[in-house]
């Protein structure tokens, strides 16, 4: 005896309603996250952009190599103070395949490192198949994380006890922290709150201070600055511009 047609119709209708509900929920969450991120940027005096296709191409390692280049959603750009001076920052939702896989937080240094260092949690399946950026060499444990590097001798000089201590403060919800060119970056869980991102920015800033200590010589500054109305330094980023 065959299954009546109305049963199949009912199943299809239920599946359609469920799919619509999931889509509506996802859209509502994205809208709420967009508003929250936008308010946070306004409170900090930072710039906000809903979508940036070029920004993720600035990096190749860490979460970018693992998930793919993708695109940036709900991007916040500006600068913040660390113990060793003001640094450029980015916060963005990293989206690939129509899904946000992580929130990327980046703090820029003044100097370019000659080695890429990735610090992965041991619980993460960090192996990847990426011809453009294959998995670097395993250096070994660094605190609670495993270090993968493109140049072992150079990395050993950078991974000091101070760096290990700073990396340990970042938290077990951050799957990977990596150093690439003149950036220190981290991948936080999707839907991380502004309060969590504020703490992560401070932690990443401390890590940047370790590898890029303050140099009082203004001629070595790499980022242009402008004066605000109160005489302070304000970084004015340009979205979509891939800088060297």
TrEMBL record:
It comes from Lentzea roselyniae. It comes from the Bacteria. The keyword Transmembrane applies. The chain crosses the membrane at residues 6-25. Residues 210-244 are annotated as: Disordered. Keywords: Membrane, Transmembrane, Transmembrane helix. This is Secreted protein.
């Amino acid at each position: 005896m065959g299954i009546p047609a109305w049963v199949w119709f009912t199943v299809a209708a239920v599946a359609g309603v469920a799919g619509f509900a999931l889509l509506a929920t996802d859209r509502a969450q994205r809208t709420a996250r967009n508003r929250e991120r936008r308010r946070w940027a306004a409170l900090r005096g930072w710039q906000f952009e809903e979508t940036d296709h070029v920004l993720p191409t600035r990096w190749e390692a860490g979460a970018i190599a693992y998930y793919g280049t993708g695109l940036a959603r709900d991007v916040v750009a500006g600068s913040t103070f660390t113990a060793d001076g003001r640094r450029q920052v980015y916060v963005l939702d990293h989206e690939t395949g129509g899904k946000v896989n992580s929130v990327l937080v980046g703090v820029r240094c003044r100097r370019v490192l000659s080695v890429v260092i990735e610090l992965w949690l041991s619980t993460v399946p960090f192996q990847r198949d990426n011809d453009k950026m294959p998995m670097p060499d395993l250096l070994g444990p660094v605190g609670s994380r495993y270090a993968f590097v493109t140049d072992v001798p150079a990395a050993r000089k950078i991974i000091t006890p101070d760096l290990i201590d700073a990396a340990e403060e970042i938290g077990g919800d951050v799957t990977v922290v990596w150093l690439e060119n003149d950036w220190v970056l981290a991948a936080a869980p999707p839907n991380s709150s502004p309060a969590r991102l504020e703490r992560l920015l401070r932690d990443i800033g401390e890590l940047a201070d370790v590898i890029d200590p303050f140099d009082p010589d203004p001629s070595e500054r790499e980022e242009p600055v402008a004066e605000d109305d109160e005489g302070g330094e304000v970084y004015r980023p340009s979205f979509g511009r891939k800088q060297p």
